[in-house]
Predict the structure.
Amino acid sequence: MRRPAKTARRTALTAATALVLALTATACGGGTTGPASGGELSGQTVTVAGVWTGSEQKNFKKVLDAFTAKTGAKTVFVPSGDNVSTFVGSKIEGGNAPDVVMVPQVGVLKQFAKEGWLQPLSEEAAKTAGDTLAPVWRTYGTVDGTYYGLYFKAAHKSTVWYAPDAFTQAGVTEPTSYADLLKTGRTLADSGRPAFAIAGEDGWTLTDWFENIYLSQAGPEKYDQLAQHQIKWTDDSVVRALTTLGELFKDKQLVAGGAQTALQTDFPTSVEHVFGPQPKAGMVYEGDFVGGVAKDQFGKTPGKDAKFFPFPAVDGGKAPVVSGGDAAVVLKQGKNPKAGMELLEFLAGPEAAAIWAGAGGFLSPNGKVDPAAYADDTTRSTARSLVEAGDSVRFDMSDQAPAAFGGTKGAGEWKILQDFLRDPSDPQGTAAKLEAEAAKAYGN
């Protein structure tokens, strides 16, 4: 995250609208929040860079407003665009680095740390984070034993969204196992609406399908090993997961319009195919952000006419909880890293997260956030599920990988899984292709 398609999957805006907003924000030099009178940081400025556009950027600025009111610091938000690594590198080279960056990929955070760009979290920020976050989030923010990244915003990527009217018409209920999920999908198709709208044009959605199946089927230990390329993609567990995924991909009852249609469908369109005015499928798998798109774009009310159930357990394993998230880091090269660290200390507590939770379109991994802070029961339930998963949460595997393998359009894992969607007849051959690309990207 946040490759071009990843931005699309996280925002409730269409791609075109998001682009216009991003360009507008960039042309205006980003948003600013003026200082309150007095305050320990009065007269100082903190510059924050992040991928957020549209409503996400607007709501994050509410958090920055609260920091300003508390400390007196002026804040400036600068849109980074999708390629955070390139943006930050160019800013450092030009002597105009932001103080704080919201990093959307574990792999990018590791890259920044290895470049020597990051300041370790202060003792206060680390202590607060230790009191509010499950240890797994510290692990994902740590590089070579040093804690750099504070996870502030999260995504719950183990939710399957559906149109209740389609389920009612087909006479089906929410499935509790993967086998039941496929059975439910075929019953939906028999009633006149294919099972899944799959956004195959956006390769990242296919990695998410694989990751949920793999985590449940192979277990967290294998998942961690594969994420670090400590086992090869030719491992039997990978072939088994691809075989399971292939059963879905090859079934035209389950893939709305078949593979060819799926490969021409991006993420926002996949949501439209379930919740738009002319529905073409009964379900769409993706993260909690589906509910925001259904609400903002198609007027659906999450929990009423846009519902979800947890991604079900596969072959007797545990139900998976795959997450993504944005970590706040402080750059050494920023003009005011000390004030930047004070912002991170603020973000580590529940107050900052509660502000965005109330505005909507947000999940926090912070266990101290009052569930009542969330604006609706559906988001509240999703947030509770994420927090209660504790250390069983696993970060999006492709976001942990080098971008050349896990995050590049038309290359690596994205392209290979798109090819597998087109022809899922050879799981073993697909695993071999994945391993060849992973070996090049990881350098081993």
